[in-house]
Amino acid sequence: MEKNYYLGFDAGTQSVKVAVYDGQMNCVAMDTAKTTLSYPQPGWVEMDIDEYYRLIKQCMRSCSYQMRQKHLSVKSVRAIMGDGIICGIAGIDAAGNPVTPYVNYLDSRTADDVERLKAQGLRIWAEETGNAEPSVMFPAMFARWFLKHVPAFAAKGVKFVHNCPYVLLHLAGLGGNDAFIDWGTLSGWGLGYHVMQKEWSPRQLEILGIDAAYLPRIVKPWDIIGSLCEKDAEETGFPAGIPICAGAGDTMESMMGSGILEAGRGVDVAGTCAMFCVSTDGIIPALSVPGSGLIFNSGTLENTYFYWGFVRTGGLALRWFKDSVCRKQSDEYYGTLDELARRHPAGCDGAFFIPYLTGGNGDYPDVRGVFSGLTLDSDQGAMWRCVLEGIGYNYLEITERYRNAGIDLSQLTVTEGGSRDALWNQIKADMLATEVVTLEVAGGAVPTNCLVAAYSQGDVTDLKEALQTNFIVKDTFSPQQSVTDYYQQQYGRRKKLLEALQESGI
After folding, report:
1. Which domain holds residue 296?
2. Which of 190, 270, 304, 404 has the greatest number of beta carbons closer than 10 A?
3. Relative orientation angle of helices 139-149 and 111-119, to the nearest 10 degrees
4. Are 227 and 277 found together in one domain?
């Protein structure tokens, strides 16, 4: 008897990933492709949302070919489910084609607008969204910018969409007015919605100056929005008519895939934007305050919520160092860098790296990327350790906020690409004074997408139970007290360095 299969994809910042899993969550086909980021002005980061659609189809075709090579029936793929970036949007026309660039969380063009909105001191943001103030990361701010600065959207635009719904919309052969957003990715807007009611907020939209007609309809992640169209079936090698789920946010899927289904658990989504999440029962007033630097979202599952702090260029800083400083394109070089870094002690003899490569944040908005304290003994390995530790100190800032709010962080689950780096995981354990665990299935979002696809077809009846079955710990990293104490000392020195850099405007 032929098995059932499910196709999932992740539309990330640096790459896309497509995979096919069977009902026992064994991966039977997989392919990836790198995306393109452009930097038209300082602080601006743009992408072509249509590139996501093209790359997903390219990887789907590779997966259908792999299945045929293994004599697996592509006709047994039961559903398609994807995830994408929660803080990023583009504007589309009635045909579903982009009329703006795709702008995401790496971009800072809305900084002045954010400050103007912050100055109003409105309480409605925290009350309805859990986010106490606007941020340059929020799609709500990008929408305001598009409405003011992109004449093509004013002339032809009909909807704002995230990158995953854009891909799914086109795979199903739908138009711009059919645009949708799932209730978790909805909270990626940051502003403009009521997080507990899972609906757009008329009061907030009026303040933001965003016409509700431009906003996609809200659906559940497992809702079926259409089926694979004839054109894309021919192009990808999968049969037309495969049901397509509404999709989800990448962070939400990574949280679920890490077994975080109840309050009080922590997850490090170690991707391009390093995201440090803790699950809660709802809004915690002590964390939903101006200046916290935290963002509040709803999860894929109903009645699940979480806060997350972030290092916008966390994973991107690692890629930058490998590609631009070491001038090595192969990802295998990360292993070489780890070997070199192990030759240097924790703290790198007082050297630091400040990872603000796309601009500062929080108390240090004017600070940029900096290496400090290097000596003639500082080779590639020392600098690489500085990069890892530099991101780790940002994690430590976030950890302090969580613990001050009474959240226990005795264990942290690491998922996505960064989970494969043992040195990086040990640094986090030592810095945060917590046990770090990785999972047997470290793909995070994609296998979780396939479980949701199975749930959409009734092949999985209890999604929580299925998720917990697949939650298997692979490696555990315990903190070393002497190293933790040393990092705490360095953390104080780093704060003084940041204060000096902010004061000097460097």
Report:
1. 260-442+472-505
2. 270
3. 110
4. no
Please report how the helices 380-404 and 481-504 are oriented relative to each other, as an axis angle in degrees rounded to 10. Answer: 90
Nearest to 281 by CA among 368, 166, 164, 406: 406
Q: Contact 279/252 with Cβ under 8 angstroms?
A: no
Residue 307 lies in a domain: yes
* Residues counted in the chain: 506
Q: Are residues 65 and 212 in the same domain?
A: yes
Written as one string, the DSSP assignment of 308-375 is EEEETTHHHHHHHIIIIIS----TTHHHHHHHHHTTS-TTGGG-EEE--TT---TT-TT---EEES--
User: Residue 16 in contact with residue 56, Cβ under 8 Å?
Assistant: yes
Answer yes or no: is pLDDT of 248 > 90: yes
Q: Please say whether the beta carbons of 357 and 287 come within 8 A.
A: no
Q: What Rg value do the Cα atoms of the chain yield, rounded?
A: 22
Q: Tell which of 252, 278, 302 closes a domain.
A: 252
In 3D space, the residue among 189, 183, 185, 216 whose CA is nearest the CA of residue 204 turns out to be 189
Burial class (CB in 10 A: 0-12, 13-18, 19+), 399: buried
**pLDDT, tens digit, for every residue of 111-163?**
999 999 999 999 999 999 999 999 999 999 999 999 999 999 999 999 999 99
What is the pTM (predicted TM-score) of this model?
0.81
pLDDT at residue number 224: 98
Tell whether the model's pLDDT for residue 256 goes beyond 90.
Answer: no
Q: Say if 454 falls within a structural domain.
A: no
Domain assignment present for 373: yes
* Beta-bridge partner residues of 439: 473
pLDDT at residue number 267 = 84
Residues 104 and 187 in one domain: yes
Bin 118: left if φ > 0, else alpha if -120 < ψ < 50, else beta: alpha
DSSP 265-306: -EEEEESSSEEEEEEESS--TTTSSTT---EEEE-SSTT-EE
Report the CATH number at residue 144. Answer: 3.30.420.40
Q: Are residues 61 and 45 in the same domain?
A: yes
Residue 455 falls inside a structural domain: no
Token pair 């300082």 in the structure block, residue: 42
Which residue in 51, 238, 207 sits closest to 140, CA to CA? Answer: 207
Which of 203, 235, 252 is the last residue before a domain boundary? Answer: 252
Query: 237: helix, coil or strand?
Result: coil
DSSP line for 114-172 = HHHHHHT--SHHHHHHS--S--TT-HHHHHHHHHHH-HHHHHH--EEE-HHHHHHHHHT
Looking at residue 439, what is its pLDDT?
83
Residue type, 490: Q
